[in-house]
Amino acid sequence: MAERSRYEELARQISAMGAVRRSIARLLPAECPSGSAAVLALLDRHGEMRISRLAELLAVDMSVTSRHVAHVARCGWIERSPDPDDGRSRILRLTPAGLAQLDELRRRTTDLLAHHLEDWSDEDVARLNALLARLRASVGDCRTSRTPA
Length: 149
Known about the structure:
mainly alpha, three-stranded antiparallel beta sheet, 3 strands
């Protein structure tokens, strides 16, 4: 196990990652704020789902999720259809316009990262990807994990 000071530095670095997230958020088009982008990305990654599942994945309250869903539906990026198993619920799915918007968001994000990391080697970028994936897997679902006593 690493020294405690290493974990303290890691905590500072993770906190400072907020600047990276804000840079990415600034490049999003005004009509697609970060909450909307997250809805599109999750529907793309996990497929169609109920809004309750989307709220779980977003780790936000159902009312916040409902606002995001209403916005992306008004934009035509998702469709809401009756759930065949429960007529009171709706199933959310991406539309072709939503996939196109998601492609544009990914292009912008990729271009931003490529610009800022242009002096990094392919190996450095691959190592960062691997380490971030490993960190995410080790931490797991922050909503259900316990803090050590």
